TrEMBL record:
Residues 192-269 have a biased composition (Low complexity). Belongs to the N-acetylmuramoyl-L-alanine amidase 2 family. This is N-acetylmuramoyl-L-alanine amidase. InterPro entries: Amidase/PGRP_sf, Amidase_domain, Ig-like_fold, PGRP, PGRP_domain_met/bac. It comes from Streptomyces bauhiniae.
Amino acid sequence: MRTEAGGARAPRGRRARIWLAAGTVLVAGTGTVVALRATSDTGTAAGGPQVVHTSVDSLDLTGSAGERTLAARSTKAFRMLAVSWQDPGVRLDGTVRVRTRSSATGTWSDWQALGAGDAQPDPAERDRAGVRGGTAPLWAGPSDGVQVKADGKALPKGLTVDLVDPGKGGATTPAMDSAAYAMPGDGEETPTDQPTDPETASTPEQTPSDTPTETTPAPTDSPTETPAEETPTPTVEPSQSTDAGTTAPASPTAPTSTAPPTSASPTAPGYLPSLSAAYPSCASASAVPQTMPSPLPAQPPATKVPAPPFVTRAGWGADECARDTGYPDYGRTVKAVFVHHTDTTNAYSCADSPSIVRSLYALHLHQGWRDLGYNFLVDKCGTIFEGRFGGASMPVTGAQTYGFNTDSMGIAAIGTYTDLSGGDSKASTIVGATPSQAMVTAISRIAAWKLGMSGVSPTGTSSLTEGAKDSYGFTFGKAYTLNAVSGHRNGFATDCPGNQLYAKLDTVRSYAAGPPAGVGVTSVDSALGAVRSGTGYVTGTTATVRWSTSTPTSLLSGAEVLVDGTSVAKVAGTATSASVKLTSGRHTVQVRAAHVSGKTATSAAVTVTADTTRPTYPTAPTAQLGKGTVNTAAVPVTVTWKAADDNGLRSQAATSPTAKTLTATSTSWAATAKSATATKFGLTATDLAGNTATASVTRTATLLQESSAKATGTWSKRASSSYLGGYSASSGTKNASLTWTFKGRSVAWIASRASTSGAVKIYVDGTLQTTVDLKSATTAYRQAMWTKTWSSAAQHTLKIVVVGTSGRPTVTTDGIAVLN
């Protein structure tokens, strides 16, 4: 196995082989080890940051020209792999399959076919000595064994499987604010920044510090077969500031120099990474002249579109001593954004994302590239990672879309997003996924920012000139019109970024360009919540307006509520509600949302009535005796009324003598009254705006027993605790009668019922009212069987006459109840 360690690399050509860390040794064999480092603060080391080692172990594939293999074998720990070969200009005409052994369970995975590696540097970088071609990478998770089979008509020379151990470390919390993209020059003081939520946190205008943010738990994501690694917060040296807070970590064996450049040294303009960042002092680094880019790139123009928060290179653990020393190549401006996928598995934890980014960095360096190829990377949780060094706001020439790397930038979605339908290669057997909303939103935020600086509409087109002579389907030197947001497949013969992500590019363009889409008022709430009246809303004079947009709120700069066309409340773009004051009466309410580009969209108007008028009782409450079981503590009473409101009632309730919830449309209530006691029957009506009105009626119920009635015919007295007062009157004699004289406004006749009970005729003031049959399958006592009510109290008589029903002539009466 050949072992190679990465030191500070010369600006051009194969990197110098310079030792970085104590304990890195050259091991005889046929593979290569490239050591990369990132710093992490474990909270236990008193002597400063600790080094996190990243290595690439390369194992040769052997066999014939048409078949190369690596037998199943144990290996050092690794998490990512790829297969590479000597000539990057040679395409792999064949199939490469791998399987790996889990270090956690000892089980072997299924065979997995690797697709072609799509991202490539332009010829100037690709055609340097020592640059290798390679397959797409595979994130395997913690592994310690591998087996490889490659077959094809003519396989490339020098096939190796490259196993990456990314170490442990790196942050998943963005550490950037929106002003963190114009870097201070050497010696300039940099204020401290604050951790920023990638979706909702505001980003104050300040320059970031080199002080790293604390690591926070990664967002919830899909489960993975292997446990996510710990992600300690990266520790950096404040003297080595680069763009977006990037720093070069200090080596424990060779501390980084913090001395400012001498007076003879050039000084980087404030919008570029500092010279000390471009040329980090590394252990055993060969002397490299510190030069500025030539020609010097222009300062990025101002843009109203804020930069999204992202994890810096220092945050994810980039070893700045491993890349090519110096500044990268720059274009003039970013005219187009190419969206890629990394073609790795989707079964990763977002806590592993820093390790995945470091692994890709290691593979790209191992293949002889100057640096990580992509300008930005985004995981499925929507976390953005800074890619190639050179300044996040600058038009850094990446290694992502062969022939079109100049004046473009590449955003890589971590994972695979094919569906293996038309347009997708079937070379890889990695199952594609649907891009998450968080990922699509993050890609849109980057595109809005970068294209915003260039003045290019994300829904527009740009012209790029093909810079490679051997890019299939494209002609060298010819200008091509491409969508400002394109898929990799639009500029290179590839299926990248997979059909499922490619299908989301229209959404990315819309999100990035604005104006806000789908702006709509979802509700207007009073203190009682959202209340509709027809097609509008009813509130009091204070209301909460709620809305939604289909454009993610992180792409909105603000929103305002319009009442009758006038702005009355302004809130941040992440807000989805605002409180407003309204005058009494009818209003129109709208919401106007502003995109980060400055474009606005206004919702359809909704009608809101601010109601300050109380409900009314067009029909005042009245009370009458009701049917049911009677006792001295509870005489059945029915209360009736009519409540109304111009905009509608929300609810009604009874408040006395007992509390009861009623419906908004209720007009009656079955209550009870205590005998011989004045009882107040209270009501409350609440309208849609929360205004209330009350009403009541007071009545007294009295029980009159048989002894107060004038009797004719034969009646017997029956005693039982089941009767009112302990006794009742019973008769089976036809035409026997009882007559009560009373003064009141409502009366109820009370009797007992059984299967053998007979019937009576009821007369009021001498007029026959009805015949009541007391027969019942079940025995019941003290039942109010019949009632009559008048509009006012007056003197009346109530007479019952026994019908003498054949076979069951007997009736038992328990008196009457009178309501006054």
